[in-house]
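Weekly structure sync - notes
Attendees: PM, LS, DV (DV joined late)
Agenda: review two folding runs queued last week.

Item 1: First target. Sequence and structure tokens pasted below for the record.
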Amino acid sequence: MYSLSSDNNVYVPSCNWRRLQKSLHILGEIRKKTKKRIIKTDLNKFNSIPRNNNEIKCPFSISKQVFCKQINESKKNTELSKKDSNYQQKTRKGKYIALDCEMVQVGPSNKKDRVLARISIVNYYGNVIFDTFVKPKERVIDYKTHINGITQADLKNAPSFEEVQSKVADLLKNRILVGHSLKNDLDVLLLSHPKKDIRDTSKFKTFKAYSKGKSPALKKLAKEILNMTIQNDVHSSIEDARAAMLLYRRYKHEMDHA
């Protein structure tokens, strides 16, 4: 199909091959084969070219040290996020709350009328979600400071009973109420709560075994069951509420099905 030309020592197509090209509509000259030209780049010259200081650098071109630092920071952020989540869970109100009240004596000296002077409410984890003194309407005969630590100064600028009662009523809604001798606390608050949602540690049968079948003192239960000392000097409504919640948590399944 090709013949050698003696003039320029190149191969030229034969007549038959030219006819075949025309029949297939292939026109134009046949390209001579040429060697590929390899361009060598001088890296030194390339690096010497001045660059624009404002050019955009690739964000992925970072050193190993920077990369490791970013990974460590990412891990720390994840750990902090988990801690924040746990903190939020433990500080929110939740389904279970425990309360305890401290009272002062009012009215004639020959009667033992008591009114609310302080109330503390903690959540399932013992974190305080509400704690306030309450200003009595009646004249206080005995602050019972030796028992509850409350003084006249504590109640002077305290919120009114109605204000506190309203806030407590809102907190009690649709929640399990835990406490010790809760009837006394609810009576002084002038509030009620569904019986099915009350967990009273003074009435739990298992706890009565520590006081020969009678209603046990919270201080005794805390010492015997929790190995915890409370009411050492004066009563603290926060401390008592926490102790009641810990007792409930220890026997939660039994108390829920009692």
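Item 2: Second target, run right after the first with the same settings.
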Amino acid sequence: MASVMRVLCLAAALLPSSVLAFNSRVVPRHTQFRGSSSFGRGGKFSTRHDVTKRRTGGGPLFGGNNDGDNIDPNPGGLNQWSDDDDNKKSFKDMSFFEQIQEWFASDEGKEDVKTYTVSLSVALLLRLLIIEPRYIPSLSMYPTFEVGDQLAVEKVTKRIRPFNRNEVVVFNPPERFRELVGESSRKSKEALIKRIVAVEGDTVEVKMGGKLFVNGVQQDEPFTAEDAEYEFGPVIVPPGDVLVLGDNRNHSLDGHIWGFLPAENVIGRAVFVYWPPWRVGNTGMF
């Protein structure tokens, strides 16, 4: 029996420190218990607990005066120690700003911040250099686009290939347009959308009857709402410029009024309508 008890005591000494815990407070292996438990004479293990005594404060571990007779028989039942975790507020008891600070300090928060930062950087890169969303504010391009249509404008190909007739482009208004609407007007700062009808070197005119001619050839324009009710030209498009008109020819403030558009003002080509769902489709640019 004595040998069995020795084996049990040795096993207890070798257990992980997390096993020797009282009320979530880990007791180190090297702690000396000053109770009355001991190996008696002849190798017998004896235990003498005074179950009528309770800890009233004092000693460093179990309380009392550590005179060998005041060991607590039920240390787990006396909840008089405070662990560091017990002093912390629960997340739901924190204020909003404390919750934010706690989230940022956590591993999960740090990982989320990293993910959001990368995603935002990629989105900004796409927005600035590759593609951006635009919406249609007026009927100047009706029936191709309706008010409220949202479309994607790609910004890459303008750098690698020249503009062609019939392409729909979004652009910053030229100086002449700003003079017409007033420099302080909100419209003078808004991007516009029109269709290119002639490029540099073309001779263009709108003849009686509202038909468009480019280099002497009448253009087939199934995308227009109606024939123009004005005459224009003939004029030659200067180098580096294009001429743009709205598809709703008689309700568009466009190149037949304010002249040519510098190609450098073009933001990008309108390539795809993505909203509303029933109008989703490409604009014929590709």
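Discussion on item 2: Residues 88 and 164 are 68 Å apart (CA to CA).
Action: LS to circulate a short write-up before next sync.
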